[in-house]
Request: fold
Amino acid sequence: MAGDRLLDDERTARAELRSAVDELRAAEIETGVRRRSRLWWLMTIVTVAAVVAAAVGTTMWVRAARSYSDSDFQRAAVARVSLLLSADHRRPDQARRILDGATGAFYDEFAQSADGYSRFVQSQGTVARGDVDGAGVSGRSGDEAAVLVAATVEFAGDTPAGRKPAVRQFRLRVLVAPDDGQLKLSAVQYIP
Reply:
């Protein structure tokens, strides 16, 4: 098997050549004739930069997927304000529905007066429909947005004093914030 022996001799020769080249390179570096290869440093830097870029990109993508658009904030503000301004003595669960769409300071404030609100609406026989005429995001901070809302409230039927139905215009500044995966009112301010 001359072919096998020839193949073994070639493999041995290649191994000896690699070993001799490595020894030569080490001797040249030791004597200062050749510098150490900087290629591995470059590869390390490129690899670390790629990992950092991937981590930053993934983080930004996840945040963008969970963030809300201005339209989302506007829709939430319109729905929550319409409910807030639509008092109806025939709906005893109205205060609970308002609280379900509230969070933060507004939740705390309204929760303290929810029973009084319900009693007053019931005793007065109030029926009012609040319609939002317009809404727009005026600013954002983190996951929250300030939304300016213009609304009209029309009181149905005769008022307790026998007056004709009234129509009132309201301007509000509301703060909308996420809570349990939903956008809710966290502050309500009436603007004169």
